[in-house]
Structures are given as structure tokens and as C-alpha cells.
């Protein structure tokens, strides 16, 4: 029994470590052994960005090392490690309620205390007169017109529905459904009409919509980093709309 428990523990530890890099501190002191992927999500919160994550890997497996520090606009980020399922981990650098800024400059401190520029982005200014008003409810028996004004370009409109099967009552749809609408927006002011046929067909009936307007930008990363390192800034407005009969 003791042998069985030891074997089980051994394999559990093996599984836990298989998604974490074993790269040495010596190699980590060379920026060319590191891949950085940075994601900034902005939205309609007053002066606070919605989400911030910095992922550090060796190009394959995530690097979890307390000696590596990430600094954003002179503010240190926190290393967060989450246990997922039974044997995997997810790690990233983040900070709750990070203030919105005109630009975002990231630095990395390696185990030998050397400091390097990591990434930089200066997003377009969000237009104060931006308009994307979505009602809380719409009628299933009428076409629905989406309107926007003074949005930043390029942008994408996404619309997906939560539907209910007419016979079984089971729910379907969602963001990755075949019925999800993806539309590139090429004008700062415009409209898009959702026909009432989108809400109801012979199979099911839509109970709600999720509507997302997203503006996407890419910034600069240190060229010494591993290939495919990137920094992404998204400005998104996302709302749920209930459909009533």
C-alpha cells in the first residue's frame, strides 16, 4: 500500500510539473530564451482597465519563477499561479484595478537583477463621444438595428445568441456557435440590422443575445524575445440583451 501511494504521488507530481518549464536561472538571464504574451482589455469602466495579463514561457512551457519581476509604468505586477483540474497550473502576472493610461510600458527584471524593456503600446485615444447604446430587451417579432457613432477603427462586431430547442427545451448557441455573426466595421458611424428571422426558426427560439464591439491594436515587443512574443490591446463593449415575445 505504501508503495502504491508513493507511486501515485510520484506520477501526480510528474503531471503537475509537465506544463512548467525547467529552464535554469542561467538561461533565464538571457532574454532570448523568453517568450512574452501581454493582453490588455479596456472598456467602459471609469479610469480602470478591465483586465491585464502577462504570460511568460520558454516558447513551449510556462515559466514560474519568483525571481522574475514584471513592471508596468513603474508599478510591479503580481505573479498569480492557479491550480487547474488535478495536475495543471496556469500562471501570469497581473494587478487588479490597474489605472487606464495613455501608454503602457512594460519592463522585466531577470533573476540576475538585470532590467530590460519588455513591451510598449500607446493605444488610440478613446473618443469621449463614442456611442453604442444597446437596450436591455428587444422584441422577437421585429428587426433589431444596432447603431454606433465615433468608434475607433479597426473594429469588429460580434453577435451570438442563446437559443432553446422547440421540442427538447435544451439550450444551445453561444459564442462559438455556427450562428455567431462576425462583421468587420469600416466606418466610425454606422448601423447593422439583425432580421427577426435570426431570433426564431423551425428548430429553436432565441432567448437572449450577446453583443460585442471590439477595437484591436498591436504594440511593440523587445526584438530579443522569442519569436511570436506580442502585446495586444483590446477596447471592448459587451452587453446582454433579453429577447421578449
Quick rundown:
The protein has helices spanning 2-17, 25-28; strands spanning 35-42, 51-57, 69-72, 75-76, 78-84, 88-94, 104-109, 115-121, 137-139, 144-148, 155-165, 171-173, 181-185, 190-194, 204-218, 220-221, 230-244. It has 245 residues and is mostly beta strands.
Radius of gyration: 23 Å
Gap from first CA to last CA = 63 Å
Structural class: mainly beta
| Low-pLDDT residue spans | 1-17
What level of helicity do the residues show? Answer: under 10%
Number of helices: 2
Mean pLDDT: 88
Tell me how many strands there are: 17
Please give the structural blueprint.
Layout: H1 2-17, H2 25-28, E1 35-42, E2 51-57, E3 69-72, E4 75-76, E5 78-84, E6 88-94, E7 104-109, E8 115-121, E9 137-139, E10 144-148, E11 155-165, E12 171-173, E13 181-185, E14 190-194, E15 204-218, E16 220-221, E17 230-244
Parallel strand pairs: 1-17, 9-17
Antiparallel strand pairs: 1-2, 3-4, 3-7, 5-6, 7-8, 8-16, 10-14, 11-12, 11-13, 11-15, 15-17
Task: Describe this structure as you would to a colleague.
There is one protein chain. The chain is mainly β. Helix content is 8%, strand content 46%. It has two helices and 17 strands. The strands form four sheets. Strands 1, 2, 9, 11, 12, 13, 15 and 17 form an eight-stranded mixed beta sheet that branches. A hairpin with a 3-residue loop joins strand 5 (78-84) and strand 6 (88-94). The protein is elongated and about 65 Å long.
Amino acid at each position: 500500500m505504501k508503495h502504491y501511494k508513493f507511486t501515485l504521488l510520484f506520477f501526480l507530481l510528474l503531471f503537475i510539473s509537465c506544463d512548467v518549464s525547467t529552464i535554469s536561472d542561467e538561461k533565464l538571464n538571457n532574454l532570448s530564451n523568453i517568450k512574452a504574451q501581454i493582453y490588455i482589455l479596456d472598456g467602459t469602466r471609469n479610469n480602470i482597465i478591465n483586465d491585464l495579463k502577462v504570460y511568460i514561457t520558454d516558447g513551449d512551457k510556462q515559466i514560474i519563477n519568483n525571481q522574475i519581476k514584471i513592471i508596468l509604468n513603474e508599478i510591479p505586477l503580481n505573479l498569480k499561479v492557479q491550480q487547474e483540474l488535478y495536475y495543471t497550473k496556469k500562471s501570469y502576472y497581473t494587478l487588479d484595478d490597474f489605472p487606464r493610461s495613455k501608454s503602457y510600458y512594460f519592463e522585466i527584471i531577470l533573476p540576475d537583477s538585470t532590467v530590460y524593456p519588455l513591451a510598449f503600446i500607446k493605444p488610440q485615444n478613446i473618443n469621449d463621444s463614442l456611442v453604442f447604446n444597446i437596450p436591455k430587451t428587444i422584441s422577437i417579432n421585429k428587426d433589431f438595428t444596432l447603431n454606433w457613432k465615433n468608434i475607433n477603427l479597426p473594429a469588429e462586431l460580434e453577435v451570438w445568441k442563446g437559443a432553446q430547442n422547440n421540442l427538447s427545451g435544451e439550450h444551445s448557441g453561444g459564442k462559438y456557435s455556427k450562428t455567431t455573426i462576425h462583421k468587420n466595421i469600416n466606418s466610425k458611424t454606422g448601423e447593422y440590422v439583425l432580421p427577426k428571422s435570426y431570433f426564431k426558426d423551425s428548430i429553436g427560439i432565441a432567448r437572449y443575445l450577446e453583443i460585442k464591439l471590439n477595437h484591436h491594436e498591436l504594440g511593440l515587443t523587445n526584438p530579443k524575445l522569442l519569436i511570436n512574443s506580442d502585446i495586444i490591446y483590446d477596447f471592448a463593449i459587451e452587453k446582454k440583451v433579453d429577447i421578449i415575445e
